[in-house]
């Protein structure tokens, strides 16, 4: 049972009365009906890749884990309607492949895509690298099949693009972390496949210039802009130090960097738009320097610089992490002020804020001082969190931009969330799961 | 009081104990708190342009109309974050102008945009001509301020693009037609302004060719595709007959037509993509003929052909209307089968199905037989509705794609909606408005 009771960060290790693996939605519904009648708590679990403990049972040995892994049928793929209906246990990577097999594109893309599953992606409203252009998991779903707490099966499945016949039940379940119902299948949107992609790496003065560049590129590349990521010089240095084969793509040293990806839908469009936009951006003083990848290998090498950030930070020693968002225009101010406040209390700690600038989402990770003791540094986790999350509140930001609440941030949420919003959430929970059998102890 | 008690189609005429016009959100909340305490029913009303009677009180003279017109402040416009926060009574046309004043684009666009208001647009999840590219009102909102039934004020306002901290309360209120809360303000998304637009008019064999063309253009124009509308030859003939100045833009007669709009974000891009895509589409047999507008005047003339459809049908005599959607790939089959079934029962009636092919949304309107008596024809409304809506159910479609339910389709909804979905909707209504003071008799 162990693989169902532990989770990726080893923060939690649960015990369970049983691991139940239904083969289809009707069996899921039957399990819930029985658990509801008996008052047995159910912890739904997809690919078990969540980072906040939402999929792990508690230590009582009285909860059951309901694994959706066996629900892995492809119910329908319809390229003409640009929609596919998949069961919850289909992995994200397989969903991407299914789209590609009918010459379509499914844009959700995450580090764990080989093992995370569609049901979990939707239950947690997963994000990833293409939110800027296509939205999060929430924006990619047309309908759901959901087993309710009492064992009834609700379906909003279907390929309709427009349907104004009542409350949007689909969006209520997306992001509810298994506390309102168990997603058993979903109808997902498909998109045209881009014909070309251009990837650029730019040297910048500071986050304020990154903001100006972001809006410049949005205006000139329009909806072709696929990703806009930033990292500071220290981040690039850590990657160059720890990741074999990593090379600085720009000759000179710059305080900040941006990685920009642009897609095109007619031949050569991506390169044409990207090179014209970058040339104008340099002329207009929106960047210090820029390089455009001229091959798929070069593009992959640029992406690797960004994607190696977490690994490079890990090899550098301890790091204290925050998954936060603020309004995009306040990112520069946030980075300045967070740095100031941390420096006042932890003068030797090294902030390495990086990530999805285009979504206002930073991985505000702080590396330990050079030569410091890792354990002693990590012991400051809560205190550092309090400083960063306090600033997030002042900036009307979010303490969980993409990873969710689960067990890890449940108590924090109760302290920082608008009390009326919390009340309404509790009223909805009471309406849909009055006996509290669905994932108790998570989120609320 | 009369202007608040009648509605555009003159289907309903209500009476009211009072018309209340609060000046701000706190006053709205106070009104609701009082009404909640006294058990007085409240009918929220925006620009009073809805087509299903959702904004009209009943005939009892015991309900009050709560007009949001005086809540018309612009709270914030932030082009850097691509967001604006407007109060509910701001008209849609003003919202578009506000966006333009900061060099941004707000894509929601409707016939009634001069008088309809943002609060009403969101309460009814309004659609319009750009849903294909930007989604409906639901997809354009980042957060809401809502007065709850008991007078508490809930805020999810804010400019965050990513926030995974609990249930999506915003989407629950969008499209709930004032039955779960009263929207007092909204944070809306802004978009880059397209630099160029290309509009084309194509002659087609049939709806099946329109479907093939739609997917061809999606693949070649990508997210630049802004609109894809269809109309049959009879529709164009009615426009040419009744609308002064209308001209057939193609030399020969074609059984069907498509209007396609493509936007570009770099100089000349729209024309380049449109002309290349159309040339390839003609080569590949996806259309019989095509013309591309070469001036803003020509583009406007092409759009006028499509936008005059309702007016032309009105001048031709009686027409029986349906606002339906089906999965996009089934549009051709639906048009065939609906035509067959109607012909069997009403051999002389003339279906003129037209509209938002790109969204799977048809205005399936049926014109009276040539020379028939209008009143006698319109007396068949319910019987014809039953045939068309019966087919919609067989096609897993929607009986209200964009106009909502209100009072007009409330009984119909109770018959055709999935019973579990109806139960869940009732549970949500009970949780948020247990005393039933918000817009009773509408939707549910």
Automatic annotation (TrEMBL), chains A, B:
Single Gene Ontology BP term? respiratory electron transport chain
Q: Name one Pfam family in it.
A: FAD-oxidase_C
- Keyword Flavoprotein appears in the UniProt entry: yes
Which PROSITE patterns does its entry note? FAD_PCMH
SUPFAM superfamilies, per database record = FAD-binding/transporter-associated domain-like (SSF56176), FAD-linked oxidases, C-terminal domain (SSF55103)
Any one GO MF term held by the record is: catalytic activity
Which cofactors does the annotated protein need, by name?
A: FAD
User: Is-annotated flag, keyword Transcription?
Assistant: no
UniProt keywords, alphabetically? FAD, Flavoprotein
All copies of the FAD-binding PCMH-type domain together span 12-193
**Family designation:** Belongs to the FAD-binding oxidoreductase/transferase type 4 family.
> What's the protein here called?
D-2-hydroxyacid dehydrogenase
- Higher taxonomy: Bacteria, Pseudomonadati, Pseudomonadota, Alphaproteobacteria, Hyphomicrobiales
């Amino acid at each position: 049972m162990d693989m169902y009771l532990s989770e990726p960060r080893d923060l939690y290790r649960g015990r369970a009365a049983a691991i139940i693996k239904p083969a289809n939605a009707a069996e899921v519904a039957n399990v819930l009906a029985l658990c509801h009648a008996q008052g047995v708590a159910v912890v739904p679990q997809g690919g078990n890749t969540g980072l906040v403990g939402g999929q792990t049972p508690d230590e009582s040995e009285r909860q059951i884990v309901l694994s959706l892994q066996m629900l892995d049928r492809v119910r329908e793929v319809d390229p003409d309607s640009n929609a596919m209906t998949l069961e919850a246990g289909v992995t994200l990577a397989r969903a991407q492949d299914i789209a590609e097999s009918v010459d379509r594109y499914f844009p959700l893309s995450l580090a764990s895509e080989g093992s995370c599953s569609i049901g979990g992606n939707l239950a947690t409203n997963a994000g990833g690298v293409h939110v800027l252009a296509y939205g999060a998991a929430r924006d990619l779903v047309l309908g759901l099949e959901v087993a309710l707490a009492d064992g009834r099966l609700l379906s909003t499945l279907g390929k309709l693009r427009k349907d104004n016949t009542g409350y949007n039940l689909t969006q209520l379940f997306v992001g509810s972390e298994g506390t309102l119902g168990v997603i058993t299948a979903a109808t997902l949107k498909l998109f045209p496949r881009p014909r070309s992609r251009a990837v650029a790496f730019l040297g910048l003065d500071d986050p304020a210039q990154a903001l100006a560049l972001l809006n410049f590129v949005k205006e000139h590349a329009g909806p072709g802009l696929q990703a806009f990521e930033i990292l500071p010089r220290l981040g690039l240095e850590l990657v160059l130090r720890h990741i074999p084969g990593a090379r600085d793509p720009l000759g000179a040293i710059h305080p900040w960097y941006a990685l920009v990806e642009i897609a095109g839908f007619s031949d050569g469009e991506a390169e044409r738009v990207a090179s014209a936009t970058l040339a104008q951006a340099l002329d207009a003083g929106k960047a210090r320097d820029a390089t455009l990848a001229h091959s798929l290998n070069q593009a992959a090498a640029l992406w690797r610089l960004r994607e190696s950030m977490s690994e490079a930070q890990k090899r550098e020693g301890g790091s204290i992490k925050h998954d936060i968002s603020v309004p995009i225009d306040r990112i520069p101010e946030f980075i300045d002020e967070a740095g100031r406040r941390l420096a006042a209390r932890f003068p030797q700690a090294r902030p390495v804020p990086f990530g999805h600038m285009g979504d206002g989402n930073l991985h505000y990770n702080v590396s330990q001082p050079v030569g410091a003791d890792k354990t002693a540094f990590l012991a400051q986790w809560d205190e550092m969190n309090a400083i960063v999350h306090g600033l997030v509140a002042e900036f009307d930001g979010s303490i969980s931009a993409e990873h969710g609440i689960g067990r890890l941030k449940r108590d924090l949420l109760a302290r920082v969330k608008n009390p009326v919003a919390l009340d309404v959430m509790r009223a909805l929970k009471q309406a849909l799961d009055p006996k509290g059998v669905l994932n108790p102890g998570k989120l609320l």
